Amino acid sequence: MNQQNDETVAxxxxxxxxxxxxxxxxxxxxxxxxxxxxxxxxVVFALFALLPVLKPPLITxxxxxxxxxxxxxxxxxxxxxxxxxVVGQTGLLDLGYVGFYAVGAYVVALLTSPASPIWDSGDHGxxxxxxGWLACVPLAIVITGITGVILGSxxxxxxxxxLAIVTLGFGEIVRLLADNLTDVTNGPAGLQGxxxxxxxxxxxxxxxxxxxxxxxxxxxxxxxxxxxxLLLVVLVLLMIGNLKRSRVGRSWVAIREDEDAxxxxxxxxxxxxxxxxxxxxxxxxxxxxxxxxxxxxxDPKAFxxxxxxxxxxxxxxxxxxxxxxxxxxxxxxxYLPARVQGVQxxxxxxxxxxxxxxxxxxxxxxxxxxQGLFPARxxxxxxxxxxxxxxxxxxxxxxGQTRTEEVKA
Length: 409
Fold this sequence. Notes:
Blueprint: H1 2-17, H2 21-31, H3 34-54, H4 66-89, H5 98-112, H6 132-155, H7 160-180, H8 182-185, E1 191-192, H9 221-244, H10 247-257, H11 259-264, H12 269-295, E2 297-298, H13 305-318, H14 323-339, E3 344-345, E4 348-349, H15 354-368, H16 379-391, H17 403-408
Antiparallel strand pairs: 1-2, 3-4
Helix pairs in contact: 4-9, 4-12, 4-13, 4-14, 5-6, 5-7, 5-12, 6-12, 10-12, 13-14
């Protein structure tokens, strides 16, 4: 009886340790077979994809278009996943991630906008026509990844607060260059007429379903951009998931937990930190390309340090290191301001107080749940629980002896 009580107390202690909602959901998920996991994932993905079509009355935004809000969420989710590679999985504090986002957006804008100063005529070659945006996306990813190499090579040798200051400066440098290099970026006037995917042309939609002119009906342009963003999120999650289970992902976790110990154990820390920077930068460039095509206008005001802090806020709120948790964080920072936008308090809309609300939420989170809403799995605790259960498992009685006789002996 005493042994059973000890096991019950230990089990309760482990439950308190692993009792977060995210951990309970993860335990149930791990208990499913691989085909069952794929089945549940497909159903959940389909439900999320149908949200802007079904428009559930309790969650639909009133002051803004629900499809456009979800399209913005999908774009920010891409940013959060890329930033999570750098901050959550590798433990590098990056405060200037908006710089990579800006580089990706300006690559698409400079190559496709009619106002781009780098072209002498309206013919942009392969970057013109219905497939111009799609041709720019790989270039945006590659050029942004090269930018990550240029930034990371000299700066990843510093750590902590120093790295945060350097990356913060990088984000501001990119914005100031876009604002002042008028001969290249058109300066504060920005670049309008950025191309987008021209798909689904008809008499009702002569520019396709992704054009801003498709702003009425159930399947507005926001819904199509949301679906495209969801598809990109799934592809990026599959890539990051495979990396996380590889030698690269294990090296990232080792660097995050203790960089000095990882280096002593033979992990080439600089190499894998640079990998994280480049991969995160490439995903940031992809999200910037999506942004440029979605709004069809790029100017420096969209890439301020405030936006960089909001992206970091999504990672911290959702749970650093958890690629699905940061998507929840992205949904919170995009959806909640849009949901309360139509709620008036006096002469002011509640949506204008979003920075105040996020500040309060972060303070509360750091006090009561510093690991985020859906923290990354504590693998060491999970293995420790298995070891504890194995050690305290009651062995079977010897042959010819009952359990009662064993206890008396």
